[in-house]
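Q: A reviewer asked whether we had any structural model of the full assembly, not just the individual parts. We don't, so I'm hoping you can provide one. Inputs are below.
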Amino acid sequence: MAMTDVQQAPAHHHKPSGWSRWLMATNHKDIGSLYLWFSFIMFLSGGVMALCIRAELFRPGLQFFAPELFNQFTTLHGLVMVFGAIMPAFTGLANWMLPLMIGAPDMAFARMNNWSFWLLPPAAALLMLSFLVPGGAAAAGWTLYAPLSTQMGIGMDMTIFAIHIMGVSSVMGSINIIVTILNLRAPGMDLMKMPMFAWASLITAFLIIAVMPVLAGVVTMVLTDRHFGTHFFNAAGGGDPILYQHIFWFFGHPEVYIMALPAFGIISQVIPTFSRKPLFGYTSMVYATSSIGVLSFIVWAHHMFVTGLPATVQLFFMYATMLIAVPTGVKVFNWIATMWEGAMTFETPMLFAIGFILLFTIGGLSGVTLSVAALDIQLHGTYYVVAHFHYVLVAGALFSLFSAMYYWFPKMTGRMYNERLGKFHFWWSMVWFNVTFFPMHFLGLAGMPRRIPDYALQFTEFNSIASVGAFCFGLGQLIFLYNILTSLKNGKPAPALPWEGADTLEWKIPTPAPYHSFVEAPQVEADHNGSIVSMHGDKHH
Amino acid sequence: MSLALNLQEPVTRIAEQEFHLHTLLLVITGIIFLGVLLVMLYAIVRHRKVAGREAKQFHENTTVEILWTVIPFLILIGMALPATRTVLAQKSAAGADMTIKVTGYQWKWRYDYMDENLGFMSHLATPRDDPAALARPDYLLEVDEPLVVPVGRKVRLLLTANDVIHSWYVPALGVKQDAIPGFLRDTWFRVDKPGIYRGQCTELCGKDHGYMPIVVDARSETDYRKWLDERKKLAMAAADDPAKVWKLPDLVVRGEKVYTQNCVACHQASGKGIPGTFPALAGSPIATKDKPGHINIVLNGSKRNAAMQAWGKQLSDTDIAAVITYERNAWGNNTGEMVQPAEIHKARAGTS
Amino acid sequence: MGAQRTQLANQRMLAKLGVIAIAMFGFAYALIPLYRVVCEVTGINQVVKADEVESGAGTELPPPFAVTMDFDASVQAGLPWEVRPVTRTVQVRTGEFIRVDYDITNRSDREVTGQAIPRYLPGAAGEYVKKLDCFCFRQQRFKPHETRRFPVVFVIDRRMPASIASITLSYTVFDVPAGRT
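A: Here is a predicted structure for the entire assembly that you could use as a starting point for your response.
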C-alpha cells in the first residue's frame, strides 16, 4: 500500500518538526490543536477585558477607565469571545475529533484547513491592535449598530476587516466539516448512526455558511457608508438604521445556535458515556437539532422588540421564538432520560456536562421570559439580557468545551489530566459563575441598562457581588491551564479506554490517537449515536 | 442597602400588566426548573454506579417523547395568550389626551409639548468628576429639567433622534421605545400616581450613553397646569435679545452653565480634555490666542475630529458667545477677552 | 481507485458550498430591496413622490369617516432650518381634499438645500394618505434668512380602515450637502 499512498499524499508519511509542523500544518490533529490553543488565548484576552469591565463596575463612580474606553472593552469583549474564543474552539474540536469519530483519514481539504486557521491570528491582531490607534477600538457594542458604528474612528474599520477575515476562516472551516462528514465517513457509519457531535457540527457548519456571509455583507455596508458615500443606514440618504438591525440579526440569531449546537453535540456524547447507557431518543435529538437550526432563521426580530415594529410583526416573532423552546426542551429531557436508570460516575467531563444542563436550562427559561414581547419591553437592553446570554454562552458553550477537553484529553495526548484539579475547577467555576451572573437578573429587573460605565446607587450591592464573582471565576480558569500544562508533561499514561462507557469510534483506536489515523477506511458496524458494535480493517501510523 | 429583586413598582396599567406577566412566567419557569432539577438530583443520587448495579439499556419511548413535546407546547400557548393582550395594549397609542415629542441627542433628551408650543432640553444634573456627587441619593438619575406630565391623562410620546439610536426607558411606567434618527415612533403611558419616576437611555449611543437619564414628574392636573403656565412665561423671558451687549462676569457665569451642559463630557471640568482623545482647552493656543479660530470651531465643528460638533446648529448666539468667553477666561486662560452675541451673528454670516 | 473519486466528489461539493457562501453574501444586499418592498406593503416606509389618486369610479367605496390629523416636523443635525406646521391639528374626512401649510425658514446666512421625508404614525396610514402637492417631492434651496410657506395638499383614501382614527404626519428634514443636489 505504501507506494500508492506516497504518490497521493507525500506529506502524510513523516511527521514534520519544528515551526514548519505548525505553520504548514495540514494534519487535522495539529490544526485542531492550533485552533484550541488560539481560542484559549483569545478566551483569556476576552476574559481580561471582562475583568476590566467588572473592576470598573465594582462600585459606583468612575475609578479606572474613561467611558469611551469602557465601551471599547464591552465591544471587544463580545467580539473576541464570540469570534475568537467560542467559534474557533468548536471548529478546533471538530477538526480534532470528527475524523476520528466517523473514520475519516483527515479533513477533506487539508491545505484549506491550514488557511482557515492561519487567517485567525492576523484577524485577532487587527482587533487587539485597534486599541492602540487614534480613537481606540470599536466602541459600538459587538452588534456594531449603525449609525453609531458610522461615527467611530479607524478602529471600526479594523474591526470590520477582522470580521471579514474571521468570516472567511469560519466559512472555509465549515465547508471542510460538511464535506468531511458527507463524503468521508467510514463504510457502515450511516448518517442516522453517526455521533450527535458530528450531527451538531454538520448543522452548525451549514448555519455558518448561510449566515457568516450575511454578516460580512452588512459590515461591508457599514464600511461603504463610512467611507464611500453610500446611505444604506443613513436616513438622510434614504437609508434606514433599522435595516441594519434586521440584517445583523438575520445573522445574529443563527449565530447564537452556532455557539450552542456543538455544545449540545458534546453533551450528547458525554452524558451517555458516564451514564453507561445509550443516548435516549437519538432520532428525536437529530430532528430537534435540525429544527432548532431551521427555526433560528425566523426569530431574529425578537432582538428588536423595542424598535417599534408593528404589533403583528412583534406577535409573529414572539410566537416563533417561544416555539424554539420546544425542541430545546426535548433535548434537555432526553439527556435526563439518558441519565435515568443509568450507572453514573462523576468524573470531571460529566460534572461539567451536568453543570451545563442545569445552567443552560436557566438560560433557556430566562430566554422564554425574554421572548414574551410584552415583557421584553421592560427587560430589553438591561442586565437581565446580559445574565441570560451569559448563562447560555458561558455555562452553555464554555462549560461544554471544558467537558469536551477533559473528555478527549486522554485520547488527544495519551495522558490523563489531574482528576482532583479537574473537579476543583468544576466546582470553583460553578460557584463563581453563579455568583457573577445570577445577581445580574435582579439588576436587569430593577432597570439597570447594559453597557454603562457607572450606575445609580441602588445597583451597588449586586454589582459588587458580581465583580467579586467575576474575578474569582476568572482566576479559576488558570487552574484549567495549569492542569493541562502539567498533565501534558507529567500526566499518568492514559489507558486505551479511560472511560468505561465510551463506545464511539475514536475510542477503538490506539491512545494517544496515531498521527495518521484511519489511513485506510475501516469497515464498521455502528449503532445510534456512533456507538461501534464492531470494526475491522483500520490502519494507522 | 437596597436589594431590589423584582421589577420596579408599576404606576401605569401597562407596567402592572408587565409586572404580573413576569410573575406568571417566573412561577411557570420556576416550576419547570425545579422539576428538571429534582428529577436530575434523584437520578444522580439513586442511579449512580455502585457495586453490582448495571445500567438499564432502554433508549426510546415514543409516548414519553410525544408527551414532553406536546405539554411544553401547551404551556407556551398558556403564556402567549396574556402576552398577546399586553402587546396589543402597549401598541394602542390612539386616543391620547396630549402628545409630547421626545428627541434623543448625544447625550441628552429634548421634550416638545406639541399642543403647547413649549420645548426644552433635559440634561444630566449630577456633576461629573466630583467624588462628592456619590453622596447624592439620585446619583446619575437626576436632570435639570424633568418631563412634567399630568396624572390620569393618556400621554402619547412621539420619538425620534438627532444623531444615533437612543432608547427612552422608564421602568415604573412600563415604557421603552427606541428613538431612531430620521424616523418616527410612538408609544404611550397614563400615570396613575403622582410622583417622580426615573429611567435611563437603554441603547448604546456612544461615550456618554450612561449619562442621559430620564426623569418624569407626574403631577395632579392643577399642579401641571400651574407648572405649564410658569414654564411658558420663563421660556418667553429667557428668549435673549441678540443685540444686547453683555458684561464679562455675566457672560462667564452664563458660559460656565453652557459649558457644563454641552462641553464638559469631552473637554472635562478641568478644561484639560482627555489626552489623545479630546484636546485640552486650558492653555491651548486656540482658546488663548486665535479668537476667530475659536469662534469658528465652536460654530462649525472640527474637520479633523468628528466628536467636535457644529454647535452653531444647537446653541443660540448668546450661548455660543458666553461659552467662548468662559473658555477664554477659565483654567488660567486669563485673556480677559469677551465675545459678544453680535460677533457670533456676524461670524455665522461669514460661514458657508 | 476510490480515493480519486472521493477527491472529485469533495471538490464538487466544495464548489457548491462556496457558491452558497457567496450567494449568501449577495443575499445580505438583496435584503435591502426586499425590506423596501415589505415596508411599502406594510406602510412602514414611504416613497416620496406624488400619489395617483384614483377616481374610484366603478368601485364600491366605504362611506367617508372623520380622522384627526396632527402635523409635525423634525430638523436633523446639520441643517440650520426651522420647519413648522402652520396648523398643528385638523379634522378631516376621508375622501376630502385638504390643504395645510408649513413655514420653513433658513436661519443661517448661507444658501442651504434640504430634503424632507414624510413619516406617518401609525405606519399603516402612510399608503392611504395621497399627497398631490408637497415640498417633500423635491429638494428645496433656501437663500440666507429666507422664509417660505409651502402647501401640502392631500386626500385620505376612503379605503383606509376605520380603525385608524388619527394620523400623525411628521416631516424629517435633512441637510443636502452642496454637490449632492
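A: Points you may want to mention in the reply: The beta strands of chain B are 98-105, 108-113, 118-122, 147-150, 155-161, 166-170, 175-179, 185-189, 195-201, 213-219. The radius of gyration of chain B is 28 Å.
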